[in-house]
Amino acid sequence: NQGIRLLAIDLGASSGRVMLGSYRDGKVTVEEIHRFPNGPVEVNGHLHWDVQRLLQEIKHGIAAAVASYGPLHSLSVDTWGVDYGLLDEQGGLLYAPHHYRDQRMADIALALEAALPPAEQFKLTGNQPSPINTVYQLFADLKAKQELRATARQLLLMPDLFNYMLSGVAVAEQTIWSTSGLLNPQSTAPSAEVLRRLELPVTLIPRLVPAGTVLGELRPALQEELCSGPLQIIAGASHDTASAVASIPYGEPGSSSSGPDQTGGVGPALREAAFISCGTWSLVGLETAEPVLSDAARASGFTNESCFGGTNRLLKNITGLWLLQETQRSWAEAGEPLSHQEAAELAGQLDRPSACIAELDPNDPLFSTPGDMPLRIESYCIRTGQPVPQTRAEIIRSILESLARSYADTIRELEVLTGCPVRCIHMVGGGIQNKLLCQLTADATGKDVIAGPVEASAIGNILVQLTALGAVDPAEVRRVAARSCSTLRYQPSLTHQS
Ligand code: LFR
């Protein structure tokens, strides 16, 4: 009994993966088939994504999986949020999609906000206004290149774009569109008011479909090239964060008031457990039945995005391991590379009481663009009147403690906003391999951390595909998730508890 075999193509801002998922005996297992780097490409002073190369890597992964395992049932692509490609009349890509860290937004953001102030954007869409959002980028691109109004026919967010290149079917999948700033707060339709006020053409938005929609088969030419047979392409929970949250094993004791599928709720929150999805970004939030649109939620930087199954995620984007990744990149460029493992060990061995540890605000704009991160940390410390961490161990430890502190602050804010106590925290994603970060999070929050799965986006991606194939009932997803992953529990150590 081979069960069902399928591929999750999980593209993050710093790396991509083609993962083989197998579903057998009510459990999902995943195996990495192909991993490749991803990142911004600088062209004429602007940052773009290299879509063609990413497609090539995806094709390589599909061919490798089929060569090793034979025919597969389906595949689905999930990616980071907000970025997009514009298609012309013939379905061709008009230009390489911009990277959300591209700096073309400063003045134009002010023009957008004059037409649609941030407070109104939040009420109309549930999204936290931010220059990285699709709505800001589209507004900027249509202003800068007037000809796009005539040539652009469809806007495809990144996972929709890859699923389109594979299947020939263009849709707007709900979970990824819930990051755009262009839909209503429930993410069920475009916000007519936002489009009207910003003079954005509604015709650019394809048909909205829920997570778990079968799009069709791999295009015949690609079947011939890669797998000599049919392969279904599915629009899954195609936002990586939605996939990651779909993989959370909420059934763990103490993470939910009464079992894995309890959605009776505690106030507006659906569970007593918060989540932190840890990667380049840290997404810290709670699942709620409805979007939370209060002024307080907006003022403290929260956003609302949609989950598989139509519930809401109230969450904050925290500039996460990007800080460490950019620091490591600077050291590697200076000829002194340090692996993730070495970085965590170095920071863990530090003699904490005598070390110089800075308190950083990870969301300070100084840290948001690519650059020499150790130098920026130094200027941040000087600006805020703090001593500058000197050794590599002190710099890494400052980053990790600052992340843990901002997770704790965010969880306290979530408790206040929803009136629901958070009992424990599920941490998922590649960042949880940094055990020190998990322990520091337990210490800073004073709550148990349940860490796992590491490959959260890939597992969530596969679970949602299984529902689309009719192999798993949507109501069973949490139970299958809980059976499929092992977790590690971190308890707050008394010495550090705040
Ligand atoms: C995480 C993520 C976040 C999104 C950010 C930018 O990978 O998808 O959810 O806000 O990337 O797109």
TrEMBL record:
Transmembrane segments: none annotated. Its EC number is 2.7.1.-. Keywords: ATP-binding, Disulfide bond, Kinase, Nucleotide-binding, Rhamnose metabolism, Transferase. InterPro entries: ATPase_NBD, FGGY_C, FGGY_N, Rhamnulokinase. Residues 275-468 form the Carbohydrate kinase FGGY C-terminal domain. Pfam families: FGGY_C, FGGY_N. One of its GO terms (molecular function) is transferase activity. Residues 7-245 form the Carbohydrate kinase FGGY N-terminal domain. Belongs to the FGGY kinase family. This is Rhamnulokinase family protein.
